[in-house]
Structure formats: structure tokens, C-alpha cells
Amino acid sequence: MPERFKLATLLTMLVVLFGSTVSAQTNRELVIATQLEPPTLDLQTSVWRSTLIIAHQIYDFLLTALPGGEYVSGVASDWSRSDDGLTWTFTLRDGVTFHDGTRLDADAVKFNFERIKSLGAAAGGLASLAAAVDNVQVLDPLHVQVHLASPYAPFLNEVGGIQFGLVSPAAVAKYGDAFAQNPVGSGPYRFVEWVPNSHVTLERFEGYAWPPGNFEPQEPYFERVTYRIIPESSAFVASLQRGEAQILDFVAPLDVLQIGSPDNTITQLTPGLPAGYQFNTVNAPTNDIAVRRAVAHAIDRSALLQAPAFGRGLVPAEYTYLSQTNWAHNPEAFDLYGYAYDPGEAKRILEEAGWTAGRDGIREKDGRRLELRVLAWPAIPMYAATDVIVEQMLREVGIALDIQALDQASLVAAVGRGEFNLVLFSGTGFDPDSPLSRNFSSAGGANWSRISLPDLDSRLRAAASEMDEDARRAKYLDIQSILYENLPFLPLFNYAGFIVKSPSIDGVWSDPRTGFRIYGAYLRD
Amino acid sequence: MIRYALRRLAALPVYLVLVTIAVFLMVHALPGDPVQVMLGVQSGEIDAERVAAVRAEMGLDRPLPLQYARYMLGLLHGDMGVSIRTGRTVQDIVTSQWPFTFQLALASLALSVGLGIPGGILAALGRDSSLGTIVSILTMLGMSVPSFWLGIVLLMVFSYSLGWVPVLAANNLVGLVLPAAALSMNAGAAIARMTRSGLVDALGNDYIRVARAKGLSAMRIYSKHALKNALIPVVTLIAFYGGYLITGALIVEIVFGRPGLGRTLVSAILERDLPIAQGIILLAAAIVLILNVMADVLYSVIDPRLRS
Q: pTM value?
């Protein structure tokens, strides 16, 4: 026994000795815990939230789009559009520099537009902006003109969006491909270190004086910001409870129930297409519109959102084809198009379409059972819960579900091959064009329902080039009613993310699109 | 003996080539497309046009034998490929991650040998007393408890409740204690059981009786005669677990939020980041092979009968 005893004592002593010193830190340091490793810190190539939450402190934007269609200044203090909608002129703030000391002037802005054009498919969410830009002209060091190939209504939205952070041309030249691991922008925090699977460290950029227009100019409170990457959810949650982290990014609703309270939780709704069922409109039996409509009537959304996986009502419901954070969202759509929870109506629709009750309560038509194949996402708790709860609800009206649990990569492949009737989906995008065109135009890259309506295609194109805001909004409302009528997709709820912070932290600006900025954050006494 | 060692070493490259083929086929047999995964599944989005464009850019649309040939050609030049997801070279990732896994494996090995061998000796010495029974029960438990479960329990007790160790593991000695304890439990228990049974067997042999009859001290009998024989199978076991500690690190690394190769491998497989998965599996396989050859050679040092 003596060896064991000695060792145990020694270990305990070590733990006590080092344990206390390690947890000590300056109170001007902010620790943010996240479960996902960012793939890159080159914002222009990534729409991943894990990139955004870090990169939004490192880069500045020409301007920032706020919900409701407003814009506030960024590095550009002013901007204007020509009458034909083809030319945009930006006036830049004077004296803005990147972290490497080089100037952020009209040449740098031109470089950034040209960079996203040269990135091609790698530009991710910026690909449509890149395609719309024809050429960029430097008027003088503080004025730059962007010429478009054709009128492109989402222009300002994309420029002031979540991905077009301005990079330092000198740093891109210096690091080449390694820029993704050595990001240089002009934002309030500069990059210090990234140890993969461990942490990313940022430091205050001394002399930063050009915050976005929605902030009071001031010196950032926190000197040092560390993002700790903690995949295991119990350790992730415990880090806030133990005071080792002050902000947890993207907490599951079930954990929010445990550690969250109204004053320390920030709810974010992913803008764009809400989460819902993508119907396969080609494969039987969901090629039958009656079946799709019956499913819509048979699902009790409010009951669904009371499930623990949804934090018992923490996730807001959504009934249209655009998230409620979107400016073209139509709050009355649910009443207008009427897919209210009504199992009786669902049964009636199915009877009328010839689906009659079989022996085990599941309906049949021409000897075919009414069974829908569902592909279930792993690792998204809200999605997993939805499939299981909906299975019960659909059984009530005589529809069976065949739920296939796959890992993510296999699921994505199966969706690509069309081997499903139902699969949960959402689509991000601040401007309505991106999620709607990608998902519902016949040539759209994410058109997994395989819907093909020439009328819808031409309306989507017309809406994207309409420059008048009110007329554009009306066009999207029409498009949403066409979608409701044809039902390639059934919206169910907002894809919601939760940020839980220590009650002593104030001033975190939650970007309604995704992520947050800590420029104005401080520790309350 | 040297010729024996050389013969074993000479077979290594052949094994390694076979391993590359097996690993390459296994990794490519995984269903799913790395590019689709990379381009965004966070909230359930898939975009076919972009996927096709990126696939072509990366050469993933070429036939498999061609891809393998390119991969091997690269390997021979010391180029293990580039991560699909991050664009970093595999060497870069391995270089940044291996020290963490190596530290953890080394600490766990030290802990499992340091606890396992004395534990086994204790159990053998006290085999007829309650002490032996207690040690046996403990080792039984140690072998059956999965390391990820033990990891979470240790974390909850020592970090969360007692607050002795930070939840967010620091990359220092303190941060190493709990993960090493969780990871070493299985191997330590196995080593203890093997040591005990080897020692009990050895103690029943005639030469021990002779040694006793000669009047040698108990200490000398155990250390010089019994233990040396009992440890032969333990050496193989340690070599075996040396490989396990590297691959077993993957779950412990995730539980404790430590960086390392194991954790990188798990995300690489889930994200179908094939070059990284290939590189790390190949590395792990090479380490296990080398450890096994080393064990064989060491075996012949301990057991002279194998030298001829």
C-alpha cells in the first residue's frame, strides 16, 4: 500500500498547488467557450458560426445591416446608389488602418471585392455578391465605386452582411494560403494565437477608433479575449457555472433550461428559411400534394415546441418561408394560407385522395402503405426530437414514418440521391433571395424537394432585381403564397441558437443574423 | 539477437504499405462526401452546384486508383496531403497536435505501469488474504469501466464539485492529471492482472522451491527469480497498450477538451476530411507496428530462449 498512498498524496498535492494558480486571471480577460473548432479564420471563405463568432471581432465591414432593412456606418461613412441601380459609391473614413499598420483605403476595398471574385466557389455565401460585381474603380484614396453587371437588390445586404469583413491586402500577399490561420483585419481585436482543438486568442487593437455606427466610440474594455474549444457538453456547461468562462456560444435548449435565465440568455434566430420538413416532390407518396397537405395539418407545432429538446417553449414557432427576423417575413401568413393543426382535416384530405385506413391503422392506396421515409440528422437535438414527436402525431391520422438514423456525411449523400420523403432543413441568408432561390428555383443548388415551377422561377428572378423595397417585399409575399400552395417545404420553427453569459457581463451586441460582437462588452461591478 | 531484430525491422515497410492500402480503402469506403459536409451542415444546408465545383478543384472526382497513386507519390516525398476542410497541410496539423497526445500517452503509460505492476505484486502476495481480493475486485472494475465515463465522473467530482482542477483543461501538468488517470485505468488494471497471474504462476515453479530451499530471502526470490519471469508477458501487454493509449486518447481528449491527434481524428472522420483521417490512422498504425517490433526485440532480451 505505501507506494499507492505516496503517489496519491503527491498527485493531490500537485493538484492543489497548481489548480489554484491556473484559474487566476486578470479581470480584463474574457473567456468565451464554444463547442466547435473553426475551420478557418478567413471570414470571406466561411459561413460557419464557429468562424463568425471569432472573426467578427477581427474584421471591420463597410457597413452593417440591421434587421428591418436599416444600415449603420462601418468603415464606410457614407454610400449612395446611381438611379439605374448599377453603380454604388462608398466614402471611407479617414485614418483607418489594419492590424499590420497598412492603410484601409479605396485600394484595399477594391482588393477585397476582387478577392471574393477570384475565390469562386470558395467564397461561400459571398458567391452571388461576387458574381454581381462587374468591376471596382478607385476615385481617390477615400472614394471607391462598385459597378454591377445588372441590378442586384441584395447588394447592400451582402456588403453589410456577416461575411464581407475587409482583409489586409498586404497580409494576404504575405501569408498566401496560410492567411486562414493568420487573419489580419482592422477590427477592435487583433489575432494573437490559434492552437487547433484548444483555443484562439485575441488582443485589443490599441488605437481602434472606427466602430460601427451602432456603438459609442470607446476603448474596448477587455484587453484579451480567449475562445476555448470544448466539445464535450457537460464540461462546456460547467465552465460557465465554475466561472472559468463568461460566455457560452450556442447552448442547446435543454442546457439553457438548466443554466439559463431571461437576463443571462440571448436568443438568436438564424435568418433565412426556418427549420422545417423538405418534402421530396418526386418520390411517392410525397409527390401527392394531398399527402403533403395532410402532414401539414397533422403536426401540432405548439406541442412540438413544448418538448424538452426545444427548452419547453424557448424556441419561437415560425409559419412562413422566411424566419421572423427577415424583413420580408409575413406574420399573417399562417392565418392567410391556413395549415392550422387539424387532424380531422388531415384525415379528410387523405380520404378524399383515396388513402383509406388499413388493418394496423396506417392508410393504404392501391395496396401501398402510407409510409414516409425520414432521414434523421444526428447531433442536432432539436431535429432528432422533432422526428420522434412528429412520428406520433402522424400516426394519429394514419401516416407511418420510417426514420433512418445516419451520420451527417451519409445523410447528406442520401439527400443528394433523393432517397427520402421527409428531411429536416433550414437555410441561412439575410436577404430573402438567397434561401428562396437556392431552395425553390428549379436550378437552385439546394432544391432537394425537386420542385420545378416555371412561374415561381421567373418570379424569383424578378424579385432579385427589383430595386424598389416595397415592390420587392410584395413580390416575396406572393412567392411565399405560391410556396404555401405547392408545399415543397413545411416550415416548423426557427433554427434558434442561444448564448448564455455570466450575469456580470454586459454590452454584448448580438448580431441578429448570427454571432455577436464584444466591442462594447464590459464587466459590471 | 541483432539479426532477429533486423529481420523484424525489415518487414516493417511491407506492413506499412499494406496499411496504407487498407487505410485508403477504408477511408474512401465511408459513405458521404467530404465537400458536402465541409460546405455546411451546421443547420442542414446542402448546395449541389458549389459541391461539384469544389470537388473538381480538389481532384476528388478522379478514379480511386489514380487518387491512391497520387497519395502514395506524395507520401514518398513526405507530403501527406492537405485538409479538405481547413486547407492546412496534414503535416502541419500532426505537428501541432502530436505533442499533446504524446504527453497524455506518456503520462498514462507511466501511471498505468506505476500502479499496475505494484498492484499486481500486492495482489499476488496477498492472494490468500482479503487484501488480494480487494485488489482483484479493483482491477476487475478498472478493466470494465470505459475511459470516457470515468473521465466525465472525474471531471464532475474533481473539477465541478471540489473545484481542485479547472474544467477547461490547461495545457500543463495539472491539466494532464485527470485525463491521464482516466486513460490509464484500463491499461493499469490489465497490467496488474497480468502481473498477478504471471507472478502466481512463477511462484508455483520448482526453481522457486529450490531458491527457498537454498535459504534466499523472500525479497530476493520475488525480485530476482519470480518477477523477472512474470514480467515477460507484461512487456507485450505494455507494448499493446502503448498503441491503445494513442488511439484511446481520442475519447479522453474530447471529454476533457484537450487538443490532440485522437480528437482531430474523430472530427476528421465525421467531417470526411479524408487526408487527415488517412494521415493520423497511418501514423497510429505505424506506431503500433513499431511498438510491437520493439516488444518482440525486448522479449528476446528478457527471455534468452528466444535468441537462438
A: 0.82
